[in-house]
Amino acid sequence: MHNTKMFRTINSYLSEWNPIGVPSYLSEDEYKPYVANLINVLGDKAKINKALIEMLKDIGVEKEYLENGSVIKDVMHATDFLYSLRKSL
């Protein structure tokens, strides 16, 4: 998959996931700064997971929230989805 298409795919996924709940008209732009890093780590599930956690911390998600079971499940689901994209690189 061409990097431009990959960028759009990942940004779209993050916008739909919208883990911090920004208004939908903002979510398309909210996560763009993190997409390139995610593309760079697509081949390594642990690095994807770490990048997602760092993204959440960077955008202000509290540590206690990150330890919430449903948030952990959401991050793992996102990790699995993004890892599945590695075949398209």
Structural account:
The protein is mainly alpha-helical and 89 residues long. Helix content is 73%, strand content 0%. The chain is built from six helices and no strands. Helix 1 (3-17) packs across helix 3 (32-40). The chain is globular and about 35 Å long. The model has no long low-confidence stretch (mean pLDDT 92).
Provide a quick synopsis of the model:
With 89 residues, the chain is mainly alpha-helical. Helix content is 73%, strand content 0%.
Shape: globular
Low-confidence stretches: none
Oligomeric assembly: single chain
- Overall structural class, as computed from helix and strand content, comes to mainly alpha
Helix content percent band = over 70%
Report the sheet with the most strands, covering strand number, pairing sense and barrel closure: none
SS field, number of helical segments: 6
Rg over CA atoms: 12 Å
One letter per element, helices H and strands E, the order comes to HHHHHH
Number of strands: 0
Q: What portion of the residues fall into strands of 2 or more residues?
A: under 5%
Mean of residue pLDDT? 92
Span of the ends, CA to CA? 5 Å
